[in-house]
Amino acid sequence: MKKSIAILSFVALVVVAYSCRKTSSSTPNKTAYLDLPATPYNYFDSFFVSANKIATLGRVLFYDAHLSVNNTVSCGSCHKQSLAFADNVPFSVGYQGAVTKRNTPTVIDVRLKESFFWDGRETNISNLALRPVSNHVEMGIDDPNTLPQKLAALPYYAALFNDAYGDGQITTDRISNAIGQFMSAISSGQSRLDMYQAGNTSALTAQEIQGKFLFDTKYNCGSCHLGGGSFMTNGYSGGGGAVFLDIGLDNSYVDIGRGTITGMTTDKGTFNVPNLTNVALTAPYMHDGRYKTLNDVLDHYSHGIIKTPNLDPRLTDSTGHARQMNITDNDKQAIIAFLNTLTDFHVITDPKFSNPFKSN
Question: Residue range 22-35: average pLDDT?
Answer without folding.
Answer: 56
